[in-house]
Write a structure and sequence with these properties.
By secondary structure, the chain is mostly helical. The protein is built from 7 helices and 2 strands, in the order αααααααββ. A hairpin with a 2-residue loop joins strand 1 and strand 2. The chain is globular and about 50 Å long.
């Protein structure tokens, strides 16, 4: 049977393009932003009462404990140890892949902290100790209050660790991050809403930046998979001897 080109074209019409489906990632982003904005609105209302409550119950023991939180959230004191320790532990446990994980986590922490620094500098909110109220803003002012840099840094660490590890490794980091935020309020360094803003920015940006960096650095996939860089053979192993116990590094 002979079919002309015209007949064939008539039997095979151009398919109608289906409407583009909505991007679920965009929906999640707006959901997160909406939740953050709602929480901030409530926190603004509680800033004054929370500060009054804290000042009425401050004590020397509490201030000493708060200093631990202040110290952990100070990147100048802890970043060299956390970054160096993370890389060393990553190499020891997973070789080159572990080093790439630690690098991705470092990028996430940096991004989360820098995002909060931009917000902090742009808004220029006065700190509680300035005694100018919680609604006083002086944009483009350095060392401002909203959001808390210490808290953002601490939660960015927790989010980054959560992204590159399995199991419960990140739980202690989340606990310490929450303690850092509480310390900043207890020490009258920040308003309650500063803590929530810093924690949200550090967590949200830190998690997504770490996730992006794991893709750039080809962290996903099993070691030795096609296209995956060679993995170092460095490993930590327990060593059982006749007269004691030890640890062996295999290269």
């Amino acid at each position: 049977m002979f079919l002309s080109p015209l007949h064939v074209f008539a039997q095979a019409p151009e398919p109608t393009a289906a409407p583009e489906a909505a991007n679920p990632k965009t929906g999640r982003i707006w959901r997160d932003i909406g939740l953050g904005a709602g929480g901030m609105g409530v926190a603004f209302l509680l800033d004054g009462p929370t500060r009054d409550l804290v000042l009425d119950h401050q004590g020397s023991a509490g201030r000493d404990l708060a200093e631990i939180g202040h110290g952990y959230g100070d990147w100048k004191k802890t970043a060299p140890f956390l970054a160096g320790g993370g890389i060393l532990l990553g190499v020891a446990l997973e070789g080159d892949r572990g080093a790439r994980k630690a690098t991705a986590a470092f990028f996430g922490v940096f991004a989360g902290s820098m995002a909060n620094t931009f917000l902090n500098w742009t808004l220029g909110r006065s700190r509680p100790r300035d005694e100018m109220g919680s609604l006083h803003f002086d944009p483009l002012r350095s060392n401002a209050s909203l959001g808390s840099g210490h808290t953002a840094y601490a939660f960015a660490i927790a989010a980054a660790v959560d992204e590159v590890t399995d199991g419960a490794w990140a739980i202690p980091f989340y606990a310490v991050a929450a303690g850092t935020g509480i310390a900043r309020v207890y020490g009258d360094r920040h308003w309650l809403s500063d803590i929530l803003a810093g924690g949200f920015v550090g967590l949200w940006v830190g998690r997504r930046a770490t996730r992006a960096a794991t893709g750039w650095l080809h962290v996903e996939g099993s070691p030795g998979a096609p296209g995956d860089p060679a993995v170092s053979a460095v490993r930590i192993e327990p060593l059982v001897l006749v007269d004691g116990l030890g640890v062996r590094l295999r290269f």
